[in-house]
Amino acid sequence: MRWIQDSNERSWLAPPARALHLTGWAVLPLRAFLGFTFCFAGLQKLANPGFFSASNPASIQAQLAGAARRSPIHGLIAPLAHFAVPLGVLIALGELAVGLGTVLGLWTRLAAAGGLAISLSLFLSVTFHSNPYYTGSDIVFIFAWTVLLLGGSGDVLSADKVLSDLARDRQGASRRAVVPVAFDVVQMACGAYDSGRCRARDGEPCAPGPCPFLARHEHSTHARHEAAIDRRTFTMKGAWAGVLALSGLASAGIVAGIGRLAAGSQSPSATFPAAGAPLGTAPNTTSTQSAKSGAGPGASSSSPATSSPATSSPATHPTGTRIGPAADVRVGGSASFQDPSSGDPSLVIQPSEGRFLAFDAVCPHAGCIVQYDQGNKIFACPCHGSMFNGETGAVENGPAPSGLTRIAISKGPDGQLYVS
């Protein structure tokens, strides 16, 4: 950075001449994008109660279920479903920490390593099967993070640089600055330069590569001095990181609270309130086998156990598994449930009065969970933009290679919906 004087105004934020030739200024837009994106992603998860609700098709539980079917590391993902909510909180806080560290330039390489790890895990669990591969955003994030992992913040608008300078000031050392210098200037400053040759190299031609002036080693006393500065810098950065972590947690708590208050003040979402509870466990859930025999744990409790087949009353609902009341799916709207046969997150819609359709909500492209767009009457994948017909589930816009799987559903006389 440099001081610029223009009409008696000074700005220490102004870039130096030919700033794009310096790594720190060149990667500043990338730092801003990655940092803001990860902060937004973490806060968005914390502010959205549906992200932690198993009945929501975009929840962490639904995403893990979809990833467990297609991911190359499905053996590692499947057990995580038992810890979905803590894992979701950990991911959200991790994204927030990575984003703050990147934006502020604090522990920049460590933040980049965390961002790369998160992007790599998302690539292996969600977008591994994207075809062509460049349609998956996570692989792009992986290589974007490698730039900051290798180069750091470049000491531009960076807390790392500020703390390093403070540590040097307290040790009584001069501040270091990387300044681009033409090699002919180095030749002028070097006492061994002699008419294009280097006396320190026995008259060899002077060149930047083997130049002893540029490659000279620090004295041991100076190295010990630098080690003391590094220790002080490390301590200060750790203290700042602690303060930033507490501030981030407080902000996350406030955002999460606001998100839940906003969700509570809105009209109820079109999902079954107890979609996760009745699946296969409710007293009136009847399997096909139980319906055929007229007895078993799924039989109606109002029917006498000794009734003969000739005098027993007919079944009061279709065979299959009850998923919730039909009244909870308004006309033109949708509701989410878990397919009892596959365990996949699924959606039921009511396109017209009394007509219900159900589909597996896992996108065939990369395992993301689709959502129903009521305005356009389509199913849309939030990951890569695939769109599916709201009536048939057929692909209307790729890159999904096939349509959504249809699920048989019917409404019983008891007002409940049943899938088989």
Describe the structure.
It contains eleven helices and 16 strands. With 420 residues, it is of the alpha+beta class. It has two domains: 1-203 and 219-266, no CATH class; 288-296 and 316-419, Rieske Iron-sulfur Protein, CATH 2.102.10.10. Strand 11 (378-380) and strand 12 (387-389) form a beta hairpin. The longest helix is centred in the middle third of the chain and has 46 residues, at 220-265. It is elongated and about 100 Å long. The termini are far apart. The relative contact order is 0.10.
- Poorly predicted spans: 1-11, 267-271, 273-314
Radius of gyration using CA atoms only: 31 Å
Oligomer: single chain
Contiguous helical run count: 11
First-residue to last-residue Cα separation: 68 Å
Sketch the topology as an H/E string, one letter per element: EEHHHHHHHHHEEEHHEEEEEEEEEEE
User: Which descriptor suits the 3D outline?
Assistant: elongated
Strand numbers in spatial order across the main sheet: 7-8-9-14
Strand content: 5-15%
Largest β-sheet summary: 4 strands, antiparallel
Structural class: alpha+beta
Total number of beta strands: 16
Number of domains: 2
Rounded mean pLDDT is 76
| Helix fraction by DSSP (H/I, runs of at least 4) | 25-40%
